[in-house]
Amino acid sequence: MSDTVISPSDTIQENRTPNSLWADSWKRLKKNxxxxxxxxxxxxxxxxxxxxxxxxxxDFRAQNIxxxxxxxxxxxxxxTDELGRDLLSRTIYGARVSMAIxxxxxxxxxxxxxxxxxxxGWVGGWVDNVLMRFVDILMGVPQLVLMILVKVVFDTMDIFxxxxxxxxxxxxxxxxxxxxxxxxxLVRGQILQVKQMLYVEAARALGAKxxxxxxxxxxxxxLGPVIVMLTFQIPSNILFxxxxxxxxxxxxxxxxxxxxxxxxxxxxIDSYPHLVFFPGLxxxxxxxxxxxxxxxxxxxxxPKMKGR
Length: 308
Fold this sequence. Notes:
Layout: H1 8-15, H2 21-30, H3 33-50, H4 52-55, H5 87-123, H6 125-140, H7 143-157, H8 163-194, H9 198-205, H10 210-218, H11 223-246, H12 258-266, H13 274-301
Helix pairs in contact: 2-13, 3-5, 3-13, 5-6, 5-8, 5-11, 5-12, 5-13, 6-8, 7-8, 8-11, 9-10, 11-12, 11-13, 12-13
């Protein structure tokens, strides 16, 4: 009977087996309890938005003049609004609009701004100058003015017959026009910094193609700041959507979002605070969850945190 002998070289070779960036990042993220709790909260909010027709106790459009501006009760947990509609049902349905606009806008801004900023920072030279001058022009226009302009122009085009779809699309487009510019500047600045690092120069000296060096060595090292920026953009998108709704450029009744609900209740906040409190609480919890998750992901993707 022969014993199997494990040589030290085999052990060293096994220990040297590298983990991917995503595997290491996921391990570090799981250790952050705050981030995992925040991710669970975001998942719950998304599920509530997707299952709104099942979870809402009442039709969000149903009016009852006998229950106008009722406070929270056993029948209506969040109370009712000025038309006797159940505020809990409208808050649940509002999650669909608010989360859809916020997340879609962040994704569109990331795609456009990421590609634009990566080309500008990586290519450099006259290409960088031309692309950044265009960004400077857009940055010179106040964000609210630019959003309102895009929103009004898109609404007048009447591309969609469905009023809700038209409002959602135009609002998302208006917020994306503003959001991608900030991300483009961030990505460009990070790439200008990272591409000067020795490991990037070494990779290119060893024959790595420009695109391969960008994807494998540059982009993974700028994920942290980009993710943090996105976590700030998502709640900001909810607030900007609220502003557009407040001035009459958002969704129209009976459709609602958290911003619409908060704006409608603002005029009577002294007498009926529940109209603002519950939508505002939903916005606050979502903002906090995204921010905490973003902080955790920033640390998880930071190469300096590897091994901790």
